[in-house]
Structure formats: structure tokens, C-alpha cells
Amino acid sequence: MIKRKQFIPLLLSGITGAFVLACSPSQPSGNNTASNSNSTTNTVENSKGIPIGVVLAQTSNAALLGQEQVIGAKMAEQYFNQQGGINGTPIKLALQDGGGDEQGAINAFNTLITQQKVVGILGPSLSQQAFAADPIAERAKVPVLGPSNTAKGVPQIGDYIARVSAPVAVVAPNAVKAALKINPDIKKVAVFYAQNDAFSKSETETFQQTVKDLNLDLVTVQKFQTTDTDFQNQATAAINLNPDLIIISGLAADGGNLIKQLRQLGYQGLIIGGNGLNTSNIFSVCQKECDGVIIAQAYSPEIDNPINKTFRETYAAQNKKEPPQFTAQAFAGVQVFVDALKAVDQKNKLDSLSLEQLREQLNQAILSGKYETVLGNISFTPEGEVVQEKFYVAQIKMDETGKNGKFTYLK
Ligand code: 1QQ
After folding, report:
1. CA quadruple 337, 69, 250, 299: dihedral positive or negative?
2. Residues in domain Leucine-binding protein (predicted)?
């Protein structure tokens, strides 16, 4: 079994005292080494904290997205433990690198479920991985919360699968409407998508349907792979049709390179990037050519509730910028586990339950709860689909050097 241990050092070392210490449970160390539990009992091993599995991309190109998620999950671990954890018992994240492919996620899920005996799993990063790994958790009856799985069909994988990441079907159309607001003369639209990625295939379907619903002219659909670096052929073919808008569904490295090459080949119209491009980590890929790219958001730093205020301030103090969507969604995912575990514990003390009972009751509690999160108020349908109130659209602004940029939210 491949075991991934490479860990991108993150800006996590010192998430310090901005949170008020409500009570002080013992603080988990927060490292990511997998300590195999040799416990022979079947109750949850919570001497160091209640173990919540986290499977995020810390290596591969998907780490451009996963890095931001790890920050959010770790901020949440610290924050909710400072708030008293689960009625006085801390949580302990069991962090595994899911890499960027199916096998990475499958290995991580197996380790967490059978060796680390986690109560639930936040992950994996990609829908492509979720379709491969979530069935393992479903069979083992381990609740899974997708932090960023947005393809159609993820909650339907099984009874134990839910997500905090709103689906492309409700998020992506907002970007097209925002583009039309900026340029009401848009008529011809070219669409690009990565054909080897489940999320990108799902997102492009939504984008293509939206284009048709808005009576725009879909002039071409170009395909690529998330591993591609050269997009000259597809870009030239699309540009020759004179589109007013180009929409890209891919991941960060491929998507960033495609934007760069479209601009270098002379395309001057608006570009929409999908959720796979929703990270400032694309700035180093497309540099000044990232400027103007429009991306729909399931999070806004302006969300007006106490937990987002604290989250935003803490993140900004550490990172000198506004929190990104993937960080906020991972933070919210940990919160849902925490709030649902509290609800279970209030009914039946957690240490009185077998691990099987705890996982089952946790799943029920997740689905029936209501949560005030950094994403706003959320809840779940019985199937595990997130119910979220509002979505947003941002546009990338790069400075003249092409080195620094930011996401500015559109009104
Ligand atoms: C998915 C996505 C990715 C872009 C998240 C990192 O939305 O795979 O569903």
C-alpha cells in the first residue's frame, strides 16, 4: 500500500490567541503522523481526542486546492477545541494525504476506517476521488462529509455520504449571469472542459445548459486533460470562432495554463473559471493573464455572523489576505462534525457507545442538524445534499507585476 507522507509545510504553525478560550481541554498536537491504534476494544479511542479523519490533497497538482483546505480544517480543530470540543472532550484530526487520484483517496479512507478508527471522514478533495473512495466508507457505515465535492451525484453515493460543498448545478450559473452583467453584448460562448475529471464533466454540463437557457450561442466545446500543459490546438480552434465569453471547467494547473495560452493567442473577451480554478494558487500559473477571470463562490468573507467574523479575522491575521472558499468549506465541515457529535453526546455519552453505534448516530445527527457556519446557515436534505442560502461571484484582479492578485467580490 502506498503511504503518502510528504507534507507541504503550511502557514499553520502559529494560529494563536485570536479565539477566546472558553474552557481548556488538552490541546491535540495536530501533527499528521498516522499512529496506528492497537486497541482491541470497539469503542472510540478518545484519550487524545475524538478522532475525525481528514483526507485532503497535500501532494500532486490537486494540492493547489488541498493546501487551502488543510488550513481550514486545522483552524477549525484549534477553534472548536478552544471552545470546549465535544462537551469537554477535544477532537483530534487524523490527517491523511489523499493525493490527487482515486488510489490515494482509497488508501487514505482504508487507513482511517480500519486502523485509526475515526468516527467520520472529511474528504476527499476531488469528486473524481469521492466516487472511488466514498463507497468504502458507505460499506463500513462511516459518515463522510465532502468538503469540496461538487459534481452531480455525490450525496447519492450512499446513506453515509453528505457534503458541505454546494453542487455546481446551483453555484456555477451565477458566474454566467455575472459575466452578462459586465458585458450584456455576449452572444457567442466557447466552453472548455477536462474530460478525465468527474467534477469538470459535471460542471461543464451545468455551464452548457446555462448558456442555452440564457439563449446564448454555444459555438464550440473543447476537451482537454487535467494533465495537459499545451492547449494551443483547442485554444486556436475556439478563438477562430470569435467567442465573446470562454468558460473553463478544469483544475488549477491545467486551467491556469489554458487561461494564459488563450490570452497569449490574442483572446480578449471575458473568461469564466469553474470551481477547480477557485484558488489564488493559479496566480503563479497564469500571472497577469489571470486578470479579469470570473469565478462563482460558495463563500464570501462578508458573510455576517459571529463565527465568520472570527474566522475571517483569524485567517487574515495569519495569512494577510481574505479567507478563500476552500478554507471556509473545510472549516465548516469540521464544525458540522463537532456540532453533530455534541448532539449525539447529549443523548448518549459518546464513551458509552460502540464505534459502530457512534458512527451511525453521528450520521443521523449530521443529517438532522442545523448549523450556523462560516458559509452562513446550512442544513442537509435527507440524501445528504447541503442546503445553503446564498452564493457569490468574484473576479480576479492582478497587479501590474502579475505576481500579486486578489479575488474581488462582485455586487
Ligand atoms: C470537485 C471540485 C474540485 C474543484 C474541488 C477541489 O469541486 O472535484 O468536485
Report:
1. positive
2. 50-400
Closest protein CA for atom 4 of ligand 1:
276
Long-range (24+ apart) CB contacts under 8 A made by 38-41 are 39/117
Q: Which of 175, 392, 396, 402 is nearest to 272 (CA)?
A: 175
Instruction: List pocket residues of ligand 1, CB cut-off 6 Å.
Output: 65, 125-127, 148-151, 199, 275-276
Q: Which of 97, 96, 100 shows the shortest CA–CA distance to 60?
A: 100
Length of the chain: 411
Choosing from 55, 60, 127 the residue with most ligand 1 atoms within 8 A of its CB, the one to mutate for a pocket test is 127
272 plus 138 within the same structural domain:
no
Residue 212: φ, ψ to 5°: -65, -45
pLDDT per residue as tens digits for the range 281-296: 999 999 999 999 999 9
Q: Which of 105, 163, 100 is nearest to 132 (CA)?
A: 105
The CATH number of the domain holding residue 273 is: 3.40.50.2300
pLDDT digits (tens, 9 = 90+) for 145-186: 999 999 999 999 999 999 999 999 999 999 999 999 999 999
Q: Which is the closest atom of ligand 1 to the Cα of 129?
A: 8
In a domain, residue 19? The reply is no
382-393 per-position pLDDT tens digit: 999 999 999 999
Kind plus residue range of the DSSP H or E element containing 66 = helix 63-82
Beta strand extents in 213-334 (DSSP E only): 217-224, 245-249, 270-273, 294-297
Q: How high is the pLDDT of residue 43?
A: 63
Pocket test for ligand 1, best of 56, 71, 150, 385 (most atoms within 8 A of CB): 150
Structural domain range at position 313: 48-165+301-379
Average pLDDT over residues 338-361: 98
Count the domains in the chain.
2
CB-CB contact of 118 with 95 (8 Å):
no
In this structure, the answer to whether residues 218 and 348 fall within a common structural domain is no
Q: In what order do the strands lie in the sheet with 386-388?
A: 370-373, 376-380, 386-388
pTM of the model: 0.90
**Same domain membership, residue 178 and residue 120:** no
